[in-house]
Q: What sequence folds into this?
């Protein structure tokens, strides 16, 4: 996490897909977003978030097709 990251405050998580490349961005609209990319083939599955060795709370989770996402 970037310097000054406050885990006690709400954050946003954005995931976009282009072909087989997924881009995850934490706090996309902030002055210091955190980005990560992974490329893999995924033919089916389900939406979900997993945390390991920690606790997390999620609210306002929205899944939308890319054509409806705001730029």
A:
């Amino acid at each position: 996490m970037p310097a000054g990251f406050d885990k006690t405050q709400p954050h946003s998580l954005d995931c976009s897909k282009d072909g087989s490349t997924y881009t995850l961005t934490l706090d996309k609209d902030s002055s210091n977003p955190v980005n990560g990319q992974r490329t893999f083939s995924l033919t089916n599955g389900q939406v979900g978030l997993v945390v390991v060795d920690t606790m997390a709370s999620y609210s306002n989770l929205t899944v939308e097709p890319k054509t409806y996402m705001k730029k």
